[in-house]
Amino acid sequence: MKAVQVLRHGDPADVVAVSDVPVPDAGPGEVRVAVSAASVNFGDIARARGGVATVLGQPPFTLGMDVCGVVEAAGAGGEAWLGRRVVGMTKMALGGMAERAIVPLSSLFDAPPELDDAEAAAFLLPFHTSYLALHLRAKIAPGETLLVTGAASGVGTAAVQIGSAAGAQVIALAGGSDKGLYCRQLGAAAAIDYRKDDLFERVMDLTGGRGLDVALDLVGGDLAEPVWTCMAREGRYLPVGFNGDAQGGLTGRPLRKVSIGNFSVLGVMLAYGTAAPPMRRIGMNPYPPELGQQVHAALCDLIAAGRIRPAIGERVRMDAVSAALARHEARMTLGRTVVDIAAS
Predict the structure, then answer these.
(1) What does the longest C-alpha to C-alpha distance in the chain come to?
(2) For labelling alongside 255, which of 59, 82, 177, 210 has CA 20 to 30 A away?
(3) Number of other CB atoms surrounding residue 193 within 10 Å
(4) pTM flag (> 0.70)
(5) Could you give the 3-state DSSP secondary structure of residue 108?
(6) How far apart are CA 106 and CA 340, in angstroms?
């Protein structure tokens, strides 16, 4: 079968290519999906370069964290999924950009019928992450002010829509007027251009000096502390992504600045299942799979009601993934980039 692989660590433009690889087998608690579409993630860049990421691969390995397709084979326990159109997060967050992929049952969901295959592939990770962050962790309420950094990205566009659907006043932080307009079209009440605007002054102006009730930060790095200065008392800051940090969020931040602001930091990670003892020892503590199904049902209701929809900026073939990753790294993309496996 064909797969988009990292052949060696390095610049994605040089090391990512389409290869022929064996078809994988589904083990107990897993299914094999005939993939129609898969999404490009910023983490694919770190994996290709061999940098810091939650899950790393040793070349050669296949990229791809989230997919849409039809279940064609099942290991023990997965028989009920045979023949169903699904979305899922791949085993070890790898292997999705291929004609066949393995998905654990803990990360497998029925594809929303209102979405085509590309939209469904673009839906799972951004919207589950945003829902967990805003509803489960921050418990966002109508009328509150929410800042979304990296707001024109795949997860950012999902967070803008979910925040807006929850009745929050959403402020989108993005680079350039085109991205700001894009976010306002998705429901943001206002946009801030990080390239030219003073973040603190704009937030204070938009909130009457009160500050942010909730900040969903997809960038991290040197942006984290400026966002902290904008928090309202009793506000909630969510470190969701670390694309602005060369060390993947492992550099640390001075906690005294959290203390003087009287706000909370709420961690969130999209993962369903039970952490193996070595992973639990390092602090990983995922949500149970049944909660994932509850979140999925709530999101499907929002899709059916026309309140949310995945924002796709590009649809590319498998042989164009390396160029798509370069555009992601250069911050040239809007929404999700989806790989059309069926057309490749």
Answers:
(1) 59
(2) 210
(3) 17
(4) yes
(5) strand
(6) 25
